[in-house]
Amino acid sequence: MRTLTKQSTLSLAIALAFSTNSFANNNEIEEVTVVAKPTSYANSVIEQSMIEQQSSVSSVLAVIDNLPGISINEGDAFGGDDWSTTITMRGFSIDGNQQQLGMTVDGIPNGGSNYGGGAKANRYLDSENLATVEVGQGTSDIASASLEALGGTFNFVSKDPSLEKSTTFAYTNGDHNASRYYFKHETGSIFNNTQAYVSYSQTDTSRWIGDGSNGGKDNQHAELKFVSNFDALTLTGRLSYDDVSETNYNSVSLEQFAQTPDWDQLTWNWTGTPHFDQMFAEGWGTLRENTLGYLKFEYAISPSSLLTVSPYYHKNSGRGDWIPPYLTSPVDENGNPTTEGGSNAGSYGFVDSDGKPLAPNEGCTQSLSWPWESGPGLNPACYSADATPVMSYRHTHYDKNRLGLTANYQLTLGMHDIEAGIWYEQSERDESRDWHKVIDARVYHHFDSTPYWTQYKNTFDTDTFKWYLQDSMALGDFTLNMGAKQYLVELQKYDHFNDISSDKVDSDSDVLFSAGVLYQLNSSTELFASYSENFAAIKDGVLERDSSTLTDIEPETAENIDFGVRYNADRLSLTATAYSIEFENRITFIAPGSDTSGIDYTIGTNGSYINVGGIESQGFELSASYMLTNEWNIYTSYTNNSSEYASDDPSSYANGELIDGAGPSFRAGDDVIDAPSDMFVLSTDYYSGDFRFGISAKYTGERLGAWTDEQTRIRNEVDGYTVIDFNAGYYAEVNAGAFKSIDIAFAVTNLTDKQYLAGGTGNGSTYFIGAPRTAALTFTANF
Known about the structure:
- By secondary structure, the chain is mostly beta strands.
- The protein is 4% helix and 51% strand.
- Strand 20 (392-413) and strand 21 form a beta hairpin.
- The radius of gyration is 27 Å and the shape is globular.
- The chain starts with 5 loop residues before the first helix and ends with a strand.
């Protein structure tokens, strides 16, 4: 059996009791749900109603959107596209350019949340197998294993197997051709000491934008988990597998959204003109396969000490697709044609009957204007009628293998609750990019399986070691904790084509200190305060770019201070937190040719990463849950955040003056791009007998984007918006034949069909369009 230290036992018991609603047999709510567990830093856990607000087709990321400080935006209501997924918390972001928030599954590191080689929690966990989500806003649990936890962490906790044997089958049907099959078998107690389950799901959706060949999501997912008890040892094992093909959503400018608020500029009819067909939706794809497995050994050395060791393995592989409207002419360093490495000597969009590149007719200056100016080189009107259009299918291949271990030791000695541990991981990531000829661009995007050019092939090795130590001291009504941790991270790149290994790059942190105090004011109220130093290592993606000056790049750091109060009595639970954050050494990618129109498909390893100063954030978070009756609950959260740049953008300004050729950018004191100052949530849930329903509304305030004029400092502005969701369900005990129970669940997101711009791309110029009204109905049968 598992044994925990006495203070850990208390914390765990309170967390489990309050992290989800408890229901009597008639579904009346028996006790109040609180929004945090007793720690010296701000934290939240989801309520059961937050899971019920989402359909089973939705990703597990969506369930935390109503928690204070957090904004989750995905390309559609079903989380059907990783490319367009953005997550923000307290001014920190996970998007296409930034990974500033940590993410773990059952405490196991996710391997990063970036698009190229990373995987968010939705790749590891089906919504039916989610027990809860633990969120540390600003300050994370000192044991959290992440290299990205600048602004806090999300720990997605999977359900443990049941003691009861059962089989569950569920089918979901929804808007946008959404369908989902889910199967789960619980073994119950076997071998007198073990419980296990296995589950499988198949999910299919279409993009909500367009018709016909508009792409979508095809996802197969499987999970297995077991828990075995051997006297003082508890062994837990979990294996997840996810195979998904996603068609991306595209970001749009404010002007494009104003003209066509329900179109992301991607098309679904093949025209035979490559300049137009580069926007064909099905050519913008994400293919990913993730396998994550771990074993967790929890050994109670004594009634007051517990050792937990968790070895794990993760394999990530996949591909990202684009369809450039031309063929390239790759050459080596001597200017000779090559199929591997080198650079592009030029591109061409039309060939003659022998396949030789053609130049546009002399004197022709006509240009196609959408999606951007083509110039005469890609305009069919500038070629003879027998010229043949050509285009490429560009693949970026990702492959990542991680092998690691976390170990944690807890010991209670009198008033001291001591925790110490390590995290070690070896990661190898391969990335390559190849270009394939489209067989006949006049017909479709089918491509030759043999690439005509492999642009680059690199391997990145990352070794990570973290140690931590914390002592929590119980001093009457006070609990004082003090901790220290350090990350030792080493990166190296190997260039396969040039047979060159880079120098090893150390991305070590200083010893990072944390301290906090928890004061039990009375039986219902506690006060807390904390200070923590957070760290994000230099990512291996920085090594991708040959122009990055690694000796000049420093790891990102943040200092976080929280002051707060928690109240829990009778029918009301409340948490209020004020915070201040100093974020330093922010790393940003500077793309070459940023003043050109359209997509630079040949960017390769050009460009550079640089540190661009810091961000200062202050804010206030409030969350509360109140029981009106035994059946009726109200939840609310409010966030006010102010984030400002601490210095000028060094890529645009030198000595306070705009650099020649640079565009306007942020200056010290400017508000941070895409950081809403206000978010407000109000939701209510009602349970009566076997029937339930809920309604939730979330307001996201206006956001400021990029600067459009240096003299006036005018900026893009994105309007605030309110999204309302509705859900209802009915559960019935059947106990007839093989059936034990049935459940019918109906969920509608964006009930009023609000048109709005959701998450941004980080540059303040383009945004993803918010998903329209989307409904889904799920029927579940238990055997």
